């Protein structure tokens, strides 16, 4: 496991209900292994069917070691979700740079979609949990906040690239982009691997066909 991943897990763990904060690398690795194992099981059999014993076995650690760090299964879920949200925020910071809309759109969205797909593929357990959760879930508020941070950042970038668009037009543009991207990314996760490329190519084609005339018109005005 990479050191950056361990440090990221340590940062996430500090915000959750840990019984004991791991101070040494070995402890940090153990916490990361527990989170990885839990997320895999959540994706495979669901949160309710997953036991702490099963998580410990998958993480190749003892149940006593698991309980040294996490008081119960819900605390593990909280840490798994927090890690996903932190990595989503990292994606926003690293991919959505100030020049995002000033670079060739094809290249910018290639990077963006690649990062999103990797994040989704890596955290299938979290996504499975959210898909199965209802809107009253205690995690829904945090998820909505992260999504709002994404939209806020895109709005800032769009305003810089197309200053002639007022806030209402930008909001509609972002709603179209977000809804289209979310729908087709979800579709890409349900089709065979050979068809995923087709879906993602269609997604990029639609977005470029929508944004290019918008930016061209802005340049003329």
TrEMBL record:
Residues 28-88 form the HTH tetR-type domain. Keywords: DNA-binding. GO terms for molecular function: DNA-binding transcription factor activity; transcription cis-regulatory region binding. Residues 51-70 bind DNA. Residues 1-24 are annotated as: Disordered. PANTHER family: HTH-TYPE TRANSCRIPTIONAL REGULATOR PKSA, HTH-TYPE TRANSCRIPTIONAL REGULATOR RUTR. This is TetR family transcriptional regulator.
């Amino acid at each position: 496991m990479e050191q950056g991943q361990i440090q990221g897990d340590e940062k996430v763990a500090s915000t959750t209900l840990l019984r004991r904060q791991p101070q040494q690398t070995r402890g940090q690795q153990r916490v990361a292994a527990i989170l990885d194992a839990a997320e895999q099981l959540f994706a495979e059999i669901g949160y309710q069917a997953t036991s702490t014993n099963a998580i410990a076995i998958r993480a190749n650690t003892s149940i006593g070691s698991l309980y040294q760090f996490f008081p119960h299964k819900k605390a593990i879920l909280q840490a798994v979700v927090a890690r996903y949200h932190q990595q989503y925020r990292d994606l926003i910071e690293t991919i959505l740079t100030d020049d995002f809309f000033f670079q060739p759109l094809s290249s910018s969205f290639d990077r963006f979609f690649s990062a999103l797909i990797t994040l989704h593929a890596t955290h299938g357990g979290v996504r499975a949990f959210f898909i199965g959760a209802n809107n009253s879930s205690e995690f829904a508020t945090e998820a909505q906040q992260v999504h709002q941070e994404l939209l806020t950042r895109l709005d800032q970038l769009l305003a810089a690239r197309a200053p002639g668009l007022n806030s209402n037009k930008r909001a509609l543009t972002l709603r179209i982009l977000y809804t289209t991207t979310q729908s087709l990314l979800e579709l890409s996760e349900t089709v065979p691997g050979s068809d995923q490329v087709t879906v993602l190519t269609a997604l990029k084609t639609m977005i470029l066909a929508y944004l290019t005339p918008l930016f061209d018109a802005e340049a003329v005005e």
